[in-house]
Amino acid sequence: MRLTVPSGLPDADLTAVDLFDPELYATGDPHPLWLAMRERAPVLRQTLPDGRGFASVTRHADVRAVLRDHTRFTSRRGTLLSILGSDDPAGDKMMAASDPPVHTRMRLPLNSVLSFAALRSREPGIRDVVRRLLAPLAAGEPWDLAVAGAGFPMAFTGALMGLPEADWPELTRLTTMAVAPQDPMFGAEADDGSLVAAHHELFEYFAGQVQARGERDDLVGFLKRMDAGGRPLRLDEIVYNCYSLLLGANVTTPHAIAGTVQGFIDFPDEYPRLDGDPDRTTLAIEEGLRWASPANHFMRYAVADTELSGEPVRAGEAVVAWLGSANRDERVFDDPYRFDVARRPNRHVAFGTGVHYCVGAPLARVALRSLFGEVVDLVERFHPAGPPEHLKSNFVAGVRSMPVTAELRPGAADLLATATAGAGPLPELPAR
Ligand code: HEM
Predict the structure, then answer these.
(1) DSSP-derived secondary structure letter, 137
(2) By its UniProt entry, which Pfam families does this protein fall under (predicted)?
(3) DSSP states of 347-376
């Protein structure tokens, strides 16, 4: 999805808005529509040709209200447009598709293993991976940040879950296929076929992982042992949550990286402002998360008749919260279409809000800080080496190709050359 200033005017025609169409995010630009919707139609309804309908909210306040208030808006029936209208089979079995108190029983134990404190010890390992990831930059050739970055989350989430490195490229492909089944790069069959095939393979893979394990000191082992409110999780619950954890990490983090680098390229005065200062890098990462908003939407169903921005919402209606729009809301962000590495405050909702606030946010932040800490040490400036290709998905705002070159700082090429010695480069996304 395009990330910068809207390419159209705010007087866009709102009668024909199609936010469901994945092509809008691949070759179009939702930003002028969102801008107009925030202004003129804060709750906008759309009916698909097959009769399924949903209401969209685009203002920061409404997006927060929908995501936060589980008493008014339930997650149990599913949270993604891809399953609009059919109840999610993972309802009440997977954190993301449940409400308190069922949600709380699964979530509380996981909060502790995925906290900053628990993850700090992993930072040196992640830094090693980051140098292997960045090593190809030393050659000075165009480097596809989207392809290389796609494999990065496996190196921290896959490692945390104890999944064998040989499986990482295929798991990366399957998780992307599960969220972008219409993208020609990942969709093997007709839309639904790809989604079903990806789900089937991932569930089967995790069932095998869970059943094959004895006592293991990794996240899969933790899910097997943990006390979920007085009982252990059942096999289907473990499998659904493994799927959700891996998907949550794989389909978002690479696009946060790409979006941040895109910001550095489009606003060339910003990257030099980091000046090697870790605190500034931390702020820049938050701005990169706002800018990229890799999770583009989450959905809920209204539990009872209610209202949003003064507009009535009917019981049972699907309501889609567009995070990418909320993160450009001029009511909350000064100069929202400016990428500002020192933005403060930055009340972005890239990780959501409320009880479902991303459980992987500390892990993502540790990984992004490791990555951009290294980048700032090694890279003087990024240059585009070709136009980015945007992912065809209404859920993930991201790129499937983003060629760049990097001007390196003195001595960086030697550091990168030693990074791969012994370990070799990171596995990349397999070409289809
Ligand atoms: C930049 C990276 C990431 C972004 C932008 C992101 C975004 C989000 C958002 C917006 C939600 C809220 C969903 C909702 O309200 O329904 C969420 C939830 C979730 N995320 Fe992330 N995420 C990221 C990284 C990760 C990582 C690294 C993991 C795995 C370790 C992960 C696993 C999950 C899970 C399991 C949930 C559901 C939590 C719950 O329902 O309580 N995410 N994520």
Answers:
(1) G
(2) p450 (PF00067)
(3) ---TT--GGGS-TTHHHHHHHHHHHHHHHH
Name every residue whose Cβ is closer than 8 Å to that of residue 16 and which is 6 or more positions away in sequence. none
Domains of the chain (ranges; CATH) run: 23-419 (1.10.630.10)
Taking the centre of ligand 1 as the mean of its atom positions, its distance from the CA of residue 253, in whole angstroms, is 10
From 252, 290, 346, the mutation candidate for ligand 1 (largest count of ligand atoms within 8 A of CB) is 252
Answer for the pair 287, 340: CB distance below 8 angstroms, yes or no.
yes
Q: Residue 296: CB within 6 Å of ligand 1?
A: no
* pLDDT tens, position by position, 384-398: 999 999 999 999 999
pLDDT in tens, 220-279: 999 999 999 999 999 999 999 999 999 999 999 999 999 999 999 999 999 999 988 999
DSSP state of 200: H
**10 C-alpha to ligand 1 centroid (Å):** 31
Helices (H), strands (E): how many in the chain? 18, 12
Q: How far is the CA of 69 from the centre of ligand 1 (A)?
A: 17
Residue nearest to atom 3 of ligand 1 (CA): 252
Amino acid letter for position 246: L
pLDDT of 192 strictly over 80 = no
Can you tell me whether residue 335 is helix, strand or coil?
A: coil
Q: Is 251 in the pocket of ligand 1 (CB under 6 A)?
A: no
